[in-house]
Design goal:
The complex is a heterodimer of chains A (about 100) and B (about 475).
Chain A: H1 5-14, H2 21-38, H3 56-59, H4 82-86
Helix pairs in contact in A: 1-2
Chain B: H1 8-16, H2 22-40, E1 43-46, H3 48-64, E2 75-79, H4 106-113, E3 117-122, H5 156-164, E4 169-174, H6 180-186, E5 189-192, E6 212-217, H7 220-230, H8 248-251, E7 260-264, H9 274-289, E8 293-297, H10 305-320, H11 339-350, H12 353-366, H13 371-395, E9 398-402, H14 418-423, H15 429-434, E10 438-445, E11 451-458, H16 463-476
Parallel strand pairs in B: 2-3, 2-4, 7-8, 7-9
Antiparallel strand pairs in B: 1-3, 4-6, 5-6, 5-10, 9-11, 10-11
Classes of the chains: A mainly alpha (about 100), B alpha/beta (about 475).
């Protein structure tokens, strides 16, 4: 299964990335080389194997003492102040983040 | 004072006995950085005022005769993927060139509460994506043992600064080898803690199921001391474990007699440099002489680790890096009219080539039609890798392997071929995929004078065995 420039354009769109034609050509070659290597996984029969999405439950099973840390009491705790949260924003009105117009007409 | 070899124990006794002050110590490291870091490039930001203020506090404690915390006056550096309140934190990316962190990462806060003097922020590959530090958006780091060579990555600045005498210990992050590989290339010690051992709060996320924070230092004992300080449950990271934290530094002295040490045959196949292979064999002979039982084992799915890793890591990265959108984090393209423009152009201008490549790859393997073939398949093979390790640890107490297939390569040598760069992580990615702790310990230099490293892996939450074996290997070098 070969990745084409069209595939790269589609994925770049999903990822909100803009690529120059030159970057796009390079990405086609790179993705084909990397995915070609990944295709060796198809040599393995994994039918019936449960996918592993996270590690914690594999060594701290649900219900065990160590797993209880995944939950905490639902109570108000101090967080970032509004001033701190806005401090790094490129554009604000002092209380909110400001962005360009969302709906075009 | 030799900043290249000073240990935490020596800092402690020099302060106690009045042979130096924390301020004088900080000044010597800051001078070393000012005079020589231009050749290495390990620091991105030097926090002189923060360092001297902390040093003054420590000197005050010494004067009063108060008990000193475990890292009192110890000059440290922090990889620039960890948040430091009020200090520029860039993740090695142009995107965050002007980002000032609003809070401290838990690991940083714990270091400073333990008395450490933070000298500054260390260079790294952009968003910790790379194996050579050449993906830093600012400047590459050079290996102090040979400045034409890379220090490894992505924690290249964290390893090079320890090797060059610009910090006694540093913090790095390791998602697929990013602490252990640069430690091996620079001839220092680097620890990958068990997943969940050290809080990830305040670590700029790359791949959350694989990311770890850990220490680098000149000696196993120093790395163990720092590990002890940063370990333990943190309510701010829901994956941080409540497991008790042993006195890691004390564990370094533990007798290794009777330990069963596994050598996985898959890690010693073709492609491993002969000098590294020979050196590891000598270390293993030493462990046998010290009373360890050496067992040949098999980790049968090892050859699949690289494809699994680069699917899982890029998939998670593509989600984590979605937050860099031009709204909250300093950079926004000036060429924008609409919201969609703003996302695309800000990301295009802010991210480097490797970051874009990984976001695209991660988006591809998660996209409709490919999810099952790549992402789900990788998660299934990840489960098989975990099973390999669980099986192995019924036979042995620890596993010994190489860290890298070769010693440090030249700058520019692998930048043209991403797949070749990825393959240099072959011995390190599996530990991240299965969450076990590991360490890279120096095991001599090759004929060109370049450092070589050996890796010890252990059971989940059994850093103690890993550290005791690492310490035994370290003693064999003398």
């Amino acid at each position: 299964m070969k990745v084409t420039e069209k595939d790269v354009a589609y994925v770049a769109d999903l990822a909100n990335l803009e690529l120059t034609p030159d970057e796009s050509r390079h990405m086609v070659d790179d993705l084909n080389s990397i995915l070609g290597h990944m295709d060796q996984l198809n040599r393995l029969d994994t039918s019936g194997v449960e996918p592993l999405a996270e590690l914690v439950s594999s060594f701290a099973p649900a219900g065990s003492e160590d797993f209880s840390y995944a939950q905490r009491a639902d109570e108000v705790r101090p967080g970032l102040t509004r001033e701190n949260a806005l401090a790094n924003a490129p554009d604000t009105d002092g209380t909110c983040f400001r962005v360009p117009k969302v709906i075009e007409r | 004072m030799n900043t290249k070899t000073l240990t935490i124990g020596e800092v402690h006794s020099s302060l106690r006995e009045g042979r130096t002050t924390a301020t004088a110590l900080a000044e010597s490291y800051l001078s070393a950085i000012a005079a020589h870091d231009a050749e290495i490039g390990s620091y991105l930001t030097v926090t002189r005022e923060r360092a001297l203020a902390k040093a003054a506090q420590i000197d005050h404690l010494v004067e009063k005769g108060d008990p000193l915390p475990p890292l009192a006056g110890v000059p440290v550096g922090i990889k620039d993927v960890l948040m430091t309140a009020g200090v520029r934190t860039t993740a090695g990316s142009k995107f965050l060139d002007k980002f000032v962190a609003p809070y401290d990462a838990t690991s940083v806060a714990r270091l400073e509460s333990a008395g450490a003097v933070c000298l500054g922020k260390l260079n790294c590959d952009e968003f910790a994506m790379g194996s050579s530090n050449e993906n830093s958006a600012f400047y590459p780091v050079h290996n102090p043992h040979d400045t034409t060579r890379v220090p490894g990555g992505s924690s290249g600045g964290s390893a090079a600064s320890v090797a060059a005498g610009f910090a006694v210990a540093t913090l790095g992050s390791d998602t697929g080898g990013s602490i252990r590989q640069p430690a091996a290339f620079c001839g220092v010690v680097g620890v990958l803690p068990t997943y969940g051992r050290v809080s990830r709060y305040g670590l700029i996320a790359f791949a959350s199921s694989l990311d770890h924070v850990g220490p680098l230092a000149n000696t196993v004992e120093d790395a163990a001391t720092v590990l002890g300080v940063i370990s333990g449950r943190d309510p701010l990271d829901s994956t941080s474990a409540a497991a008790p934290v042993p006195d890691f530094a004390a564990e370094c002295g533990r007798d290794v007699k009777g330990l069963r040490v596994g050598l996985p045959k898959e890690y010693f196949s073709a492609g491993l440099d002969t000098e590294i292979r020979n050196s590891i064999e000598r270390q293993v002979d030493g462990l046998r002489a010290a009373g360890c039982e050496i067992v040949e084992i098999t980790l049968p799915h090892t050859e699949y680790a690289i494809p699994v890793y680069y699917i899982v890591a890029t998939a998670e990265a593509s989600a984590n890096l979605a937050r860099f959108d031009g709204v909250r984090y300093t950079s926004r393209s000036t060429q924008v009219k609409t919201l969609a423009d703003m996302y695309r152009k800000s990301r295009d201008e802010g991210f480097g080539a490797e970051v874009k490549r990984r976001i695209l790859l991660g988006t591809y393997v998660l996209s409709a039609g490919y999810y099952d073939a790549y992402y789900r398949k990788a998660q299934q093979v990840r489960a098989l890798l975990l099973k390999d390790f669980q099986q192995a640890f019924t036979q042995v107490d620890a596993i010994v392997t190489p860290v890298t297939p070769t010693a440090a390569f030249k700058l520019g040598e692998k930048t043209g071929d991403p797949m070749e760069m990825y393959l240099s992580d072959i011995y390190t990615v599996t530990a991240n995929l299965v969450g076990v702790p590991g360490i890279s310990v120096p095991c001599g230099t090759n004929q060109q004078g370049l450092p070589m490293g050996i890796q010890v892996l252990g059971r989940h939450f059994d850093e103690s065995t890993v550290l005791s074996l690492a310490s035994a290997i370290e003693r064999q070098q003398k």
